[in-house]
Structure to design on (192 residues):
């Protein structure tokens, strides 16, 4: 007798193929997911590494900015100290100006000139006095120009007063003292 298989083998074969298909599909999906996950992790590690380098650079830049600010403030302090030192040195040089001025006045004033008043304003000296002749004043101006302490002698006025004396004429002269700083310059430098 012939052997007849009455079991539903086609349906079982189809179910086996379906199971095999879903198994392969699941394996491919898992492999694709693993590949995507690994690629994502690789690039994420590279991004994290670059972010860490960027953060390190930003921290170093901030530290250098702080140093630069300190250097700028130190340079400003240095300039301020140099200005103060310069002012102190000039004040030290001009400390004995009063005695130097009187000593130099005694050298430059010739016979025939009589000083009645000396006024010092900043670095200029106003000389008021009487002169026997204009030649004596000219000699005095020449001596002032040769002086190491005085410069820029300007004769502002010569007046002759007939009522008082015919021999003497009044004069007013302005002279600049070399090497002195103005008090306005001192206050400006001290303020800055």
């Amino acid at each position: 007798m012939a052997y007849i298989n009455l079991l539903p083998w086609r349906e079982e074969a189809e179910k086996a193929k379906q199971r095999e298909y879903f198994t392969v599909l699941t394996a491919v999906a898992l492999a694709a997911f693993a590949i995507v996950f690994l690629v994502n992790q690789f690039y994420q590690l590279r991004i994290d590494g670059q972010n860490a380098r960027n953060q390190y650079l930003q921290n170093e830049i901030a530290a250098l900015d702080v140093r630069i600010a300190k250097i700028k403030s130190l340079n400003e302090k240095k300039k301020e100290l140099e200005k103060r030192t310069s002012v102190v040195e000039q004040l030290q040089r001009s400390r004995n100006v009063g005695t130097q001025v009187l000593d130099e006045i005694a050298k430059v004033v010739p016979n025939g000139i009589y000083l009645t008043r000396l006024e010092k304003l900043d670095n200029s000296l106003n000389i008021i006095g009487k002169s026997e002749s204009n030649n004596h004043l000219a000699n005095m101006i020449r001596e002032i120009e040769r002086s190491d302490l005085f410069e820029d002698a300007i004769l502002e006025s010569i007046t002759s007063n007939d009522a008082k004396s015919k021999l003497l004429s009044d004069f007013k002269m302005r002279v600049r003292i070399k090497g002195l700083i103005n008090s306005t310059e001192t206050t400006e430098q001290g303020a800055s």
Notes: The beta strands are 113-121, 124-131, 150-160, 169-177. Confidence is low (pLDDT under 50) at residues 183-192. The CA atoms of residues 34 and 40 lie 10 Å apart.
